[in-house]
């Protein structure tokens, strides 16, 4: 029995059909039936119960199925790595981006990367940082942009933004002309926050709790422009990162430093320590780190 035989067996078990497995593997049904029979004879067990229309695994078949999964997966990883060596610049990347940071940092990076590696395709998933982190952790994404810190036992990461949250209020607000505002003075205000699947949602509530109050949240959104628009309509106040504040329409709002305490906001790129990364994904990480670090140095110089 070799790896090809295991792959045939796994496909029959997955599809519960010899015919469908043969079609999926682009081989004939007699070939796959003979392979399964050979495995059964070699191991001295019956792998499938064929008494019904849909075949099902026997107890012995279930044991082999469970043991075969990591073997087949390891072989697929080996094939993928060897494929990278042969094809180099070809590949596909699954990238997770929080909506509020994607437009600020990544169109330029993605454009430059595409120009350098035109054969690499990229699929972008927009979700809150908490969801992005979870999807990188379970393998649904190759790379994600999240709010740091994360679990450094699970993820590799690099940081590319370190700044604070700013307070935005309507220009007629009682605090509009202050130079800075302590967080505790917002205890009676109406807050407009990002949704719960955004890390900033929990971060702001946690910081307010440290100051002895729970914020009165009247609206939640996944879009920073909607949040700033609600503040501009005098519906409440909001806390947004400095980067985002540079892009909001300032005609009807005031942007004020928040202090005592300041609330830090740190963005980073993460990828899983234990999962295989394709050449394309590894190159995207290195390329992006170079571009973003150069951009940060320019802004701080």
The helical percent reads 40-55%
Q: What pattern of helices and strands is seen along the backbone? A: HHHEEHEHEHEEEEHEHEHEEH
For the sheet with most strands, the description reads:
8 strands, mixed
Q: Into how many domains do the coordinates divide? A: 3
Proportion of residues in β-strands: 15-25%
Judging by the overall fold, what is the CATH architecture of the largest domain?
3-Layer(aba) Sandwich
How would you classify the helix and strand content by structural class? alpha/beta
How would you portray this structure in words?
Belongs to the LysR transcriptional regulatory family. Keywords: DNA-binding, Transcription, Transcription regulation. Residues 1-58 form the HTH lysR-type domain. One of its GO terms (cellular component) is cytosol. By secondary structure, this protein is α/β, with parallel strands linked by helices. The chain folds into 3 domains: 3-86, Orthogonal Bundle (Arc Repressor Mutant, subunit A); 91-160 and 266-300, Periplasmic binding protein-like II (D-Maltodextrin-Binding Protein, domain 2, 3-Layer(aba) Sandwich), CATH 3.40.190.10; 163-264, D-Maltodextrin-Binding Protein, domain 2, CATH 3.40.190. The chain is built from 10 helices and 12 strands. It has helices at residues 3-15, 18-25, 29-43, 59-87, 99-116, 129-137, 199-210, 224-232, 242-245, 279-300, and strands at 48-49, 56-57, 91-97, 120-126, 143-148, 155-170, 181-182, 190-194, 216-221, 238-241, 253-259, 264-272. It is elongated. It starts with a helix and ends with a helix.
């Amino acid at each position: 029995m070799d790896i090809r035989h295991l792959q045939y067996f796994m496909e029959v078990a997955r599809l519960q059909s010899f015919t469908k497995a043969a079609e999926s593997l682009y081989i004939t049904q007699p070939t796959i039936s003979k392979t399964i029979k050979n495995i059964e004879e070699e191991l001295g067990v019956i792998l499938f119960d064929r008494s019904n229309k849909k075949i099902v695994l026997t107890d012995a078949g279930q044991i082999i199925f469970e043991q075969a999964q990591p073997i087949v997966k390891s072989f697929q990883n080996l094939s993928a790595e060897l494929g990278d060596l042969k094809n180099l610049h070809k590949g596909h990347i699954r990238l997770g981006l929080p909506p509020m940071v994607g437009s600020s940092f990544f169109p330029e990076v993605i454009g430059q990367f595409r120009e350098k590696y035109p054969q690499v395709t990229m699929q972008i998933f927009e979700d809150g940082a908490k969801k992005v982190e979870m999807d990188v952790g379970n393998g649904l994404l190759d790379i994600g942009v999240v709010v740091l810190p994360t679990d450094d036992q699970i993820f590799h990461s690099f940081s590319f933004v370190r700044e604070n949250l700013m307070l935005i209020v309507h220009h007629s607000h009682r605090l509009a002309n202050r130079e800075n505002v302590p967080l505790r003075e917002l205890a009676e205000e109406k807050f407009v926050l990002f949704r719960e699947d955004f890390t900033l949602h929990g971060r702001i509530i946690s910081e307010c709790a440290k100051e002895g109050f729970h914020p009165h949240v009247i609206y939640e959104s996944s879009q920073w422009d909607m949040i700033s628009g609600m503040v501009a309509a005098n519906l409440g106040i909001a806390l947004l990162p400095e980067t985002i504040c540079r892009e909001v329409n300032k005609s009807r709002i005031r942007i004020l430093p928040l202090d005592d305490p300041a609330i830090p906001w740190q963005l980073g790129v993460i990828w899983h320590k234990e999962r295989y990364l394709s050449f394309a994904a590894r190159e995207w990480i290195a390329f992006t780190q170079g571009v973003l670090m150069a951009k940060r140095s320019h802004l701080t110089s």
